[in-house]
Write a structure and sequence with these properties.
The protein is of the alpha/beta class and 383 residues long. 49% of the residues lie in helices and 9% in strands. It contains 15 helices and nine strands. The protein has a seven-stranded parallel beta sheet. The protein has a two-stranded antiparallel ribbon with strand order 2-3. Helix 10 links the parallel strand 8 and strand 9. Helix 12 packs antiparallel against helix 15. The longest helix is centred in the N-terminal third of the chain and has 31 residues. The protein is globular and about 70 Å long.
């Protein structure tokens, strides 16, 4: 018995596989909107966000590999490819490093196609977005839009740099978390079977999500009421283990899996074990666009009902909507101070857009602006 089979049997108890109805459920939009407003809805991003396209196979093609002719097209730096597991085997560490550079180029190109999805994600106030992708595309969209946030990633071989650690609870500052490392730190990536084994040894061992480095994320996961999965292949056993890590109590009110590619028996298993509802007939982008429209309408309804302006501004601050707050404050006696902070924010966004400021420096400057805006909110008595 292999170690992977043993882990599979350990974490995935047998089920009677009763055949539940697999028809797409009616999405409980009102429940999701309420969960978003209460900062209890978490989004999880998988690799296959574009319907009908497999990111791993596209990555292989980028390196010159034909998935239909693996033995005949393997480059010298890749000993073998395992499409089912979406993993590689490298002859040595130097080869791994050379291939990683090609991955970096690929994700830069792929980002152009993912940006519309990332834009929709940024428009919705998820307190936590967990991504299994290694790119920084979503972070860049947040920075470009001037959305206050924090970024971190799980590093099974080391510890993220200080400016990439979770600094405050996600309820106070939105969190983007890369679950399987980040491209800029190639040692954090899970690319081989050995990497995957070491990853689970760490995340199930001394470096759990409940450890000091990740405790705020762990708390956010525990108190969340709803999970939304987009772009995942549920037939892969690491995904099944990941669900147990993220939701060990299996107590979420709603768990939707969008546009999944999964066999019927897999859908039955997840419906039985985790109460995941599989939703066909709507793409990740289509779902996010619809949720965004409903959120905007719901928010407008609350504002029209005369919600206290100070509380509204506090809510926007938790959502990272600094520019929106400052535009509203320009209509109050604090207009002069709001103009000054808006000028600082626009200058920072321009610097980020032009690539002349590091993420660390941008984060520090954004925090200074946030503190100033928070002070303005607490001082305002605008109607």
């Amino acid at each position: 018995m292999s170690i992977f089979t043993a882990l599979f049997d350990l974490f995935l108890p047998k089920t009677n596989m009763a055949d539940p109805t697999l028809a797409p459920p009616n999405i409980a939009w009102k429940d999701l909107l309420k969960s978003l407003a209460q900062q209890k809805c978490i989004l999880l991003i998988g690799p296959d966000l574009l319907p009908g396209e497999n990111l791993f196979l596209e990555l292989c093609r980028h390196t010159g590999i034909d998935p239909n002719d693996l033995p005949g097209t393997l480059p010298r730096d890749i000993s073998m490819v395992y499409p089912k597991d979406e993993l590689f085997l490298f002859p040595n560490d130097a080869a791994r490093t050379r291939v990683w550079r090609k991955f970096d180029d690929f994700h830069d190109e792929w980002l152009d196609r993912l940006t519309p999805i990332y834009e929709q994600i940024a428009a919705l106030p998820f307190p936590v977005v967990i991504s299994t992708l290694p790119d920084l595309g979503l972070r860049k969209v947040f920075e470009r839009r001037g959305i206050l946030h924090q970024f971190s990633y799980y590093d099974y071989r080391g510890i993220p740099e200080p400016h990439d650690r979770i600094s405050v609870p996600p309820r106070d500052l939105r969190l983007i978390f890369n679950m399987f490392g980040v491209l800029s730190d190639h040692n954090s990536l899970v690319l081989t079977h050995d990497d995957l084994f070491q990853y689970f040894c760490q995340i199930l061992g001394d470096r759990k999500l409940g450890s000091e480095l990740y405790i705020e994320l762990s708390h956010a996961l525990k108190h969340a009421t709803d999970f939304i999965f987009v772009g995942f292949q549920f037939d892969q056993w690491p995904m099944q283990m990941l669900l147990r890590l993220l939701n060990p109590d299996r107590n979420k009110g709603r768990q939707y899996a969008l546009n999944p590619t999964a066999a019927k028996e897999t859908c039955i298993f997840f419906a039985d074990q985790f109460e995941v509802e599989f939703v066909d007939g709507i793409t990740p982008l289509g779902f996010l666009e619809t949720l965004s429209e409903k959120w905007a309408a719901d928010e407008q309804s609350r504002l029209g009902a005369g919600a206290p302006i100070q509380q509204t501004l506090r809510d926007w601050l938790r959502q990272g909507q600094i520019a929106r707050i400052l535009e509203r404050l320009r209509q109050t006696p604090a207009a002069k101070d709001a103009d000054f902070q808006l000028s600082r924010l626009n200058s920072l966004r321009e610097a980020i857009q032009n690539g002349v400021v590091s993420s660390e420096a941008a984060f520090l400057e954004m925090n200074k602006i946030r503190l100033a805006v928070q002070d303005l909110i607490e001082k305002t008595n605008a109607a």
